[in-house]
Design a protein that fits this description.
Length: 504
């Protein structure tokens, strides 16, 4: 329910008149993203906007259908996430996002501001947000659930009596059936009853101060997509192949029997009865339940072994039982491995992260020579995903800062670029590559330094090899001069002896 203290919202409202004015140049329906006015519709993205569907392009029934389609998408993603292969892949992605060497809080804040009092105040509010969300305990689930749904919606509760006390509670809420009504600038849940259009589940509405929403920027029209969208087809194919694998292997491992039953000169009706009698005595039948993976004698889903029965008339070979050997190569897994790799590729995970090749190396190595282009793409992908969650916590921090009066919204907007929330640790591959890059530069510098003062200047070497700016060069030389005078660093600046060895 919208708080009494928020009748006059502390966040600025979208300028609808400006939107209408701009639409004369570029109609709003043709705008994919308004890069200049990114906060025109706060935290809506491709979110469902009641007002946009009232201009003659869509009716209420259309937006109702879209909201239901969004729910169907989310339900499909959640069902997909329950399959073992996708669950394992999701854990790999989430672990990479929140990677940390130790048990420390994985998020940190960096503030480029000279006002120490302001820095301390913002840092204090950040620590409050981290505590309220219980990041150490809940970040894994926050990231995993939102990654599956393709969006995350946080509800912020404030002190009903005084919003100046700031945020007092944070909850992750259900995205299904939620939409943004620009006529009232509120979020609402639509009824699940398709016969009643835009009937709300209750009288609850949420102001823009109460909800923070982020998505991954994947849209199909007005529908938000998850990165799992790309995995649906390969995951379903893989599941189908695996479901068929057991009955196929079982049927090939057991030879089928061919019964030739001598029925003599019996009439057709009596002969059929004799055949059924033999079948009842000798029939061998197993069934496979692809839901549980169980093999049983009871009829359920897939018949795995069927014998063949033929009637021999008088003068035949009598009753005989032959065996058909259908055992093929029971170790064939090429199709399974192909679609397993395809699934991991669809989820942007390097195939070397998960063992899908029983013939290959099973040890995961950080050796530079084994860092592939696939690994690099994965690193960049993880970095993009991390930015979403950095934006999420930064937006929550903004609500806390503005509501408590630490800064006005205009002041926050002016300083926002100097406030950065990031993950504490980079993944080991990035750190390894940074180290390798530094060592390569050092090797080049060792060779180039012989020509310093002859072919090129010291500044040229530092700029071209280490990519130092003029300011960074001046700063480093100042530090060197200070350290040379400090006894604690004397051994590092000792002069070489006659043989070229450091005196220390």
């Amino acid at each position: 329910m919208q708080l009494n203290e928020m009748v006059k919202n502390f966040l600025k409202q979208p300028d609808r008149s400006a939107s209408d004015k701009d639409s004369s140049v570029v109609p709003q329906k043709n705008v994919v993203v308004d890069l200049t006015n990114s906060d025109m519709y706060p935290n809506t993205g491709a979110f469902f906007d009641n007002d946009q569907f009232q201009g003659g392009l869509f009716g209420k029934s259309e937006i109702s259908d879209i909201i239901f389609k969004q729910k169907e998408k989310i339900m499909k993603y959640r069902q997909l996430a329950m399959t073992p292969d996708v669950t394992d892949a999701l854990d790999e992605i989430v672990n990479e996002i929140i990677f940390s060497y130790d048990d420390k809080i994985p998020l940190q804040i960096d503030i480029d501001e000279e006002n120490e009092k302001l820095v301390n105040a913002v840092t204090e509010k950040f620590e409050k947000i981290v505590k309220l969300t219980n990041v150490k305990r809940h970040l894994f689930q926050i990231v995993k659930n939102s990654y599956i749904d393709g969006q995350v919606i946080m509800h912020l509760s404030y002190d009903q009596k005084n919003t100046k006390n700031g945020i007092k509670g944070i909850k992750m809420i259900e995205p299904c059936m939620l939409y943004f009504d620009t006529k009232t600038n509120t979020y609402k849940y639509m009824s699940e009853d398709k016969t009643v259009i835009f009937q709300h589940t209750d009288n609850t509405s949420y102001s823009i101060e109460e909800l923070v929403r982020e998505d991954f920027g994947l849209y199909d029209g007005k529908i938000n997509l998850s990165y799992l969208e790309y995995a649906i087809k390969p995951a379903n194919i893989l599941k189908t192949l695996e479901d068929l694998l057991i009955p196929l292997r079982f049927s090939r491992s057991i030879s089928r029997r061919v019964f030739n039953v001598d029925i003599g000169d019996l009439p057709a009706k009596r002969g059929a009865e004799v055949m059924r009698d033999y079948q009842g005595k000798f029939k061998y039948k197993k069934f496979y339940n692809n839901e549980t993976g169980e093999v049983s004698n009871q009829q359920h889903i897939t018949s795995m072994v069927e014998d063949y029965w033929f009637a021999n008339r008088s003068g035949g070979k009598g009753t005989t039982v032959d065996v058909l050997d259908e055992s093929g190569n029971l170790g064939e897994l090429d199709d399974i491995l192909y679609f397993a790799r395809k699934l991991y590729r669809a989820m942007k995970i390097p195939s070397n992260r998960i063992d899908v090749n029983p013939e290959g190396d099973k040890d995961f190595s950080f050796d530079e020579t084994r860092t592939t282009k696939e690994d690099m793409k994965f690193f960049m992908f993880i970095s993009r995903i991390r930015q979403v969650y950095s934006s999420l916590f930064k937006e929550i921090l903004k609500r806390e800062i503005v509501s408590t009066g630490v800064m006005s919204e205009q002041e926050w907007d002016d300083k926002e670029d100097y406030i950065n929330i990031s993950f504490v640790n980079e993944n080991k591959f990035i750190e390894k590559m940074k180290l390798d890059n530094f060592m390569n530069k050092m090797e080049i510098y060792t060779t180039a330094s012989e020509h310093q003062g002859k072919l090129f200047s010291v500044n040229t070497v530092l700029k071209d090899i280490f990519r130092f700016t003029d300011e960074e060069i001046d700063e480093e030389f100042k530090k060197i001069q200070e350290e040379e005078k400090n006894p604690l660093y004397s051994k590092f600046y000792a002069n070489d002896d006659e043989d070229g060895n450091p005196k220390w």
